[in-house]
Specification:
Number of domains of chain B: 1
Strand content of chain B: under 5%
Structural class of chain B: mainly alpha
Oligomer: heterodimer
Number of strands of chain A: 0
Number of domains of chain A: 1
Helix content of chain B: over 70%
Radius of gyration of chain B: 20 Å
Radius of gyration of chain A: 16 Å
Largest interface: A-B, 43 and 35 residues
Order of helices and strands of chain B: HHHHH
Number of helices of chain B: 5
CATH class of chain B: Mainly Alpha
Number of strands of chain B: 0
Number of helices of chain A: 4
CATH architecture of chain B: Up-down Bundle
Largest sheet of chain A: none
Strand content of chain A: under 5%
Structural class of chain A: mainly alpha
Helix content of chain A: over 70%
Distance between the termini of chain A: 52 Å
């Protein structure tokens, strides 16, 4: 157990990266669909409303990337502090980015 | 008193959001004192955050599709159009960020937090991100509802005196 004491399990690390990427994807998609009418119409067609489509895409991306990264050995080499920093930065970018986008455009 | 399906769904959405936020604080506090004895409790609390935020998503999504369009028209015609164009637009996407974090929390909490400092730190950070985000989303919901309220108040104030507030 001591050997594990300073690092995350592979699934925790893999899903942490996936969560950060899904958060950034969610933010980027919110911007792009606002600016690109054909994409917005397509997303409205897929699951009745673009927000539903976006939510489902986020969840699929999170689990898809999470399962993928959990299988890769390099996730074990990523330091926990880097993962925490990446995830926190992604959430801050998301919060500030979404608010500023809607405030300015 | 006439409680409609719309009211129940809206209150369920907000209540599950609040509950999920409170549970995230619980996970944070339990993780600060992580021991073998409370490991299972932390995992259950983390999973409860996921379930509550998931329920808030489903109820919120249903309400947004079926009942919000009328409120949106009202808000945009009222004195607080920003309640929709800024706060709802931001809230609906920020909630998805909150949902992703909530999905990740039980995965992070599955590690042995009582022996693993890195895993403990990760759970603390994720819970610490969920709680304030949950509060921001709840506050946005309150602003949106206030946007509806001031729009309704203005429309009532514009009706003839014998049909208005002072009747």
């Amino acid at each position: 157990m001591r050997a594990d004491a300073s690092k995350l399990s592979r699934s925790s690390a893999g899903f942490a990266i996936a969560a950060a990427l899904a958060v950034l994807f969610n933010t980027g998609l919110a911007w792009v669909k606002d600016a690109d009418r054909p994409l917005l119409n397509l997303m409205n067609d897929v699951a009745r409303d673009s927000w539903i489509t976006q939510g489902l895409a986020d969840v699929v991306l999170f689990f898809g990337f999470g399962l993928l990264f959990s299988k890769l050995s390099w996730t074990e080499r990523v330091t926990p502090n880097w993962l925490i920093g990446f995830l926190t930065a992604a959430v801050i970018v998301s919060g500030v980015g979404l608010f500023l986008w809607d405030a300015l455009f | 008193m006439n409680v409609t399906t719309s009211d129940i769904i809206l209150f369920a959405h907000a209540s599950f959001g609040v509950l999920g936020t409170i549970l995230a604080v619980w996970v944070f506090v339990e993780t600060l004192n992580a021991r073998e004895q409370n490991a299972q409790r932390i995992r259950r609390a983390a999973l409860s955050v996921t379930l509550c935020m998931g329920a808030a998503w489903i109820f919120g999504g249903y309400w947004y599709l079926h009942f919000y369009p009328a409120e949106r028209r009202m808000i945009l015609a009222g004195p607080w159009p920003l309640a929709h164009s800024l706060f709802m637009e931001t809230k609906e996407h920020l909630f998805l960020t909150l949902l992703i974090l909530s999905l990740y929390l039980p995965i992070a909490a599955a590690d042995k937090l009582y022996v693993n400092a890195a895993a403990r730190r990760m759970v603390l950070f994720v819970a610490m991100l969920i709680a304030p985000l949950g509060l921001v989303v709840e506050a946005s919901g309150a602003i949106i509802e206030h946007g509806v309220k001031v729009a309704l108040l203005r429309s009532v104030a514009r009706t003839p005196v014998n049909g208005g507030i002072g009747k």
